[in-house]
Write a structure and sequence with these properties.
The chain has helices spanning 16-30, 76-87, 108-111, 131-149, 158-163, 191-198, 220-228, 244-253, 268-277, 294-301, 316-323, 334-344, 348-366, 368-381; strands spanning 2-6, 34-40, 49-53, 56-61, 66-67, 70-71, 91-96, 115-119, 152-155, 174-176, 206-211, 233-238, 260-264, 280-283, 305-309, 326-329. It is of the alpha/beta class.
Length: 384
């Protein structure tokens, strides 16, 4: 079987979905499936390129940048048609949301093969960024047209499927397969890196790490306000984005520079050392745009207890419950989050036990090997 994956970006672009795509393609290849992917170039202005990543062809379409967090690529339809003719797939695996993948509706070569959708998330009508609500009503007809053509839709968790309004009409075609990672991609840091990372934390505190784009739905402002209430913790936030200035100002106003740091973007080894050395990993997101939280699986690989906002209809809380590896708090509730931090400062052994449960669950449920096999089973359904 030959399967072409159509996604948004691909490493070295840093993102949970991009790392998942890379891990998945390599795992599917080990299952005997011939795979390739077409994505957007993550650097605007770069020309079309094609390279191999450990035997997986990666085609990158030129991008003109982003509008409302999504890539803009006028040349994508021409390249999609070219790649289909060159690779001759038996199946298209479309990763959504991705407006560029909708061009398949107009390309005869694309319509000639079955489609499977990897439903990463709904386009959530945000109460914070209200532009998304208006834009979604333009995008929705295309989204529903693609769903109409899809033979199967893969969703990462039962709660997300149950809560998803766009998928409600197509529930009979949906299959729940969790996202996963390859733990081998995340090596244990060497002693030198661990020592350097340890020096970044305030001694004698509960070490709380958070990672993600500094954007509207991640809830880092809630984390900052909660941390201000608990002198016994220190916090590091890794990532960059439009809200960096506002978050830095909040840290300054709270006089927390000594125990709360915005680290910006870090190299993989630097981030892995922080993961390995922290006590807790916190995902304080406030909207269902946080559909799953791939970074939670990375924290589980390093045996870290999780503190996650229990957003209705999000898969993030489901990951914690599935792995019995952490704690849930109401989204946006800084007092509840602070109370939990305060309690955990006195229970380090509990954090360690939760972290070990998460590491076990990663191998049993969220390893990319088992995820790829389940996706291969979905592929096989189309031949039954």
């Amino acid at each position: 079987m030959r399967v072409l994956h159509v996604g948004k970006y691909y490493p070295p672009y840093q993102g949970g979905m991009e790392n998942f795509l890379r891990d998945l393609l390599k795992a599917l290849k080990k299952e005997g499936i011939s795979v390739s992917t077409l994505v957007h170039h993550h650097i605007p202005g770069h020309r079309f390129s094609c390279e191999e990543d450990e035997g997986v062809p990666v085609w990158r379409a030129p991008s003109a940048g982003q509008v409302l967090y999504l890539p803009v690529s006028p040349g994508f339809p021409r390249l999609l048609r070219h790649v289909i003719k060159d690779f001759r797939p038996n199946l298209l695996h479309l990763h959504f949301p991705n407006p560029s993948a909708c061009w398949g509706l107009l390309i005869p070569e694309a319509r000639a093969v079955p489609w499977i959708i990897q439903w990463q998330s709904d386009v959530v009508p945000s109460a914070i960024d209200r532009r998304l609500k208006a834009a979604y009503w333009i995008y929705r007809p295309l989204e529903q047209a693609v769903l109409r053509r899809a033979k199967r839709v893969i969703v990462a968790s039962e709660p997300y499927l149950a809560y998803s309004e766009p998928l409600r009409r197509w529930a009979s075609r949906c299959r729940v397969v969790p996202l996963g990672i390859d733990p081998a991609r995340l090596p244990w840091p060497n002693a030198s890196l661990l020592k350097e990372a340890e020096m970044e934390w305030r001694p004698g505190t509960l070490k709380v790490l958070a990672v993600g784009r500094l954007t509207y739905y991640k809830g880092f402002d809630v984390l900052i306000r909660a941390a201000r209430r608990v002198p016994g913790i220190s916090v590091q936030i890794v990532g960059d984005g439009a809200l960096r200035g506002a978050l830095q100002e909040a840290i300054h106003e709270g006089r927390m520079e000594g125990r709360m740091v915005l680290r910006g973007g870090l190299s993989d080894p630097e981030l892995q050392a922080l993961m390995a050395g922290c006590d807790l990993f916190c995902l304080p997101s406030v909207e269902r745009t946080e559909a799953f939280g791939m970074v939670l699986l990375e924290a589980m690989r390093y045996g870290k207890a999780l503190v996650v906002s229990d957003i209705p209809g999000s898969g993030a809380g489901w990951v914690v419950q599935k792995g019995s590896c952490g704690f849930l708090t109401p989204p946006g509730d800084e007092v509840a989050l602070a109370d939990l931090f305060e309690r955990l400062t006195h229970q380090p052994a509990l954090c360690q036990r939760m972290g070990m449960k998460g590491k076990e669950s990663l191998d049993q449920v969220f390893h990319i090997r088992s995820v790829a096999r389940r996706i291969a089973d979905v592929y096989s359904e189309l031949g039954d």
